[in-house]
Amino acid sequence: ATSGKCGKNLIWKLDRKGTLTISGKGAMYDYFRVAVPWESHIMKIKAIDIKEGVTKIGAGAFEACVVKQLKIPNSVTSIGEGAFSELGGIKTIKLPSKLKEIGDFTFSDCYDLTNIIIPNGVTNIPHYAFKGCYKLSSITISKNVTDIDEGAFALCTSLKKITLPEKLGGIGKYVFDGCESLTDIVIPSGV
Known about the structure:
Strand content: 15-25%
Structural class: mainly beta
Shape: globular
Distance between the termini: 51 Å
């Protein structure tokens, strides 16, 4: 099958050009430690097009995909655990302005990712969210982030500069472990 359900009111379809489209309304199912329905076609996926109406990207949904394009609509408010871990081929990920929540390991080991902007709705950067993004050199953190959890940027060896928001109240252990290019950081007084 090259199409099917991936949420109560969502369907997926893989076309002949390799575009995986997720459409409908509502949340995707979580696939963390469970095979995604497009598993047998994963090597054919060249682009991911999530349509307006999808509110949550399921855990583990696009793990280990290598794509040239990724579209995430503004309707997405939540991205599940490990949803894009080990994603290859994408240098910049444009996160939707209405995004409020990202899960642990969401973008871990995205080996081609070079920059990302965390939108204002996100208040927490969870455990190991960007761990092992070796080419990540630029990250803009929302002014509303109050906590950065353990290992969030561990092994981001190309990260040179990061500005922490004034509202930040807590930084977990190993957040910048192995960030060998990071030479200067200012910890806000509220931490």
